[in-house]
């Protein structure tokens, strides 16, 4: 089949209705857009609607998209299908005014058979309707936010997602590659065809080939299973993500009827409580990051380069695995993980039959769950990066017999479609334990009225006795049946049971599917010391839109301190979760470097400085997802001679701190001291140096210098040559610096961006967790001296991006958008 992008030529507007249009009162203004497009991120946030806090105070709404496309006459005897990789949400598709398809879930791809509704030899119109409302606990985005494709095939063709590749036998000398190809005959006669399958290595060399005949009777779909031997195979793994291509062709009497190319990796996967997780026979501990689906300043728009860049940065930060919390991830992210060697837990649902918010997926689960499982497995099957399917996140039913029955149905449905991977479920102990568990610890009123208990809010206030709660026998008994159907038990914030459950459930394998960032040192020790615990996934690897302020710190005397009583979220204008190792622009926070040290991946010490204007201020609220209120900087203009606290992260025995060559002091570090040494000193402009000592000898040093002199506006693109198609972007990091490149984190100012040439500004913003500006503005204020502009090409040619700011010389970045390769 021929797959072509269907992203161009769309128009968008807020949805109108038939009677409104009939009366001539509809807003007729359609806006030209290119997919992927987020309909929500372009709207103004409104703090008046407290119910919109979960999605970052963006309003919900209903949307319409339309596109005209020409269908040539020769398509009359072919099959034409439209694919939508993600439409949020409750999509309905109309072709030439006729209803064609609907799809409830916002995170699984779906196909629309267009043949019977097309006008051949002329223009056609497709209209897609979608809505976003009170249906999510985080930022969802809206509309056609992932890629769309048009797929054209003959009457005899490989079915959609019809090539499935497994590697059941692998050793040093040979890998057995089994390719199952489903071919369908929709022609009026029986067809005798040949299926030719070739395995091609990364250099384009054919390393295995097979050809087999298949007779297809009228209306029949037949599956051909071919076994090919690849000699001396290159294996796919996190440190060596080698990919092969499988070329499949269907021919009849020498005529090519259809063809597909599928990338895959040769890798084995096993797990047991004694040797843990093994990939290709080697033990792997999962250094995991939970991530949401949005892409920061461009909203939910899932443009391929955004997904690629995110995986690149996560990998550089020391992660080797991601969990797609709490919904199936995009094809583009899986492609990036395949290429870069990032393991994936792909997660199905945040709700089954019990709602967490008024209009969430629980309303659709009874009807749609099987087709959504099918869609996710079909998407993932040939991606070597996917090692685990998660059937849910913090599902309340998991502590009941009815929930255990649903768990079994979901797990067995997945296994019937894909027996090569593992199944988990991310279980929250408080939800699964229910009122029986909470009754012993929560207030009596909360125990009487289960629906009034805000679990995240309860967790925020009750950390000191959570380990005791989680150790309860009630939790073990309530979850035993639901966990019994899993290959790996997913524990959300239940690490206090890791060692206990080794004795209680000796055959159980555990993964920390969600953990608090400040506990990584203790949790990673548990992973290293317990073979039945295969990894840790922090909440979160990357900050995200919605669920605002769950990682915030509030101080007594602040106007926002009253928000502490509201539970785990902040009030307007909070936008981001304000937690994670990496901010929404892709800049690494101190927590990221701390984690890298804990993982044993960084030997140099790292300096983080708590904001001096907060020194000595009593904390009114620090949530479980908070890190210290610090950044890596020694530029605190206006705070000269003020007291300041310095954190140094190090695996060394001891750390020495010097300010302008004078010793501030020494302090123990390393694992026994939670990899952190702290110093109180006075801010003096100049240089701060941290020197690490192991066994009495220097093992590393890091220095920070104060910014001095004029403020310069520095702008740097991640790549100056990009592809002029709908998959690529250029990211421009904007930083306020001095002549030597030291960051002026206290000199924030408005920056204006102007784009000239064949490109548009796709998004512009900073990591500010509570902005009053919008990502579609052309003027934004830096935060801690930084901002980010995202440029999307519209055609080949030279692109010039000019940035200006008060008191700074303008900065210019030039990018060349090159024509796309014909194969794309």
TrEMBL record:
Species: Parafrankia soli
Keyword Hydrolase annotated: yes
Residue ranges of every copy of the DUF4982 domain listed in the record: 643-698
Keyword Hydrolase: yes
Transmembrane regions listed in the UniProt entry: none
Gene Ontology annotations of biological process type: carbohydrate metabolic process
Protein name: Glycoside hydrolase
Span of domain Glycoside hydrolase family: 713-813
Lineage, broadest ranks: Bacteria, Bacillati, Actinomycetota, Actinomycetes, Frankiales
Domain Glycoside hydrolase family 2 catalytic: 277-426
Gene3D superfamilies reported in the protein's UniProt record: Galactose-binding domain-like, Glycosidases, Immunoglobulins
GO molecular function: hydrolase activity, hydrolyzing O-glycosyl compounds
Pfam families found in the cross-reference section: DUF4982, Glyco_hydro2_C5, Glyco_hydro_2, Glyco_hydro_2_C
Family in the record: Belongs to the glycosyl hydrolase 2 family.
Origin superkingdom: Bacteria
Annotated keywords: Glycosidase, Hydrolase
Domain called Glycoside hydrolase family 2 immunoglobulin-like beta-sandwich: residue spans: 160-267
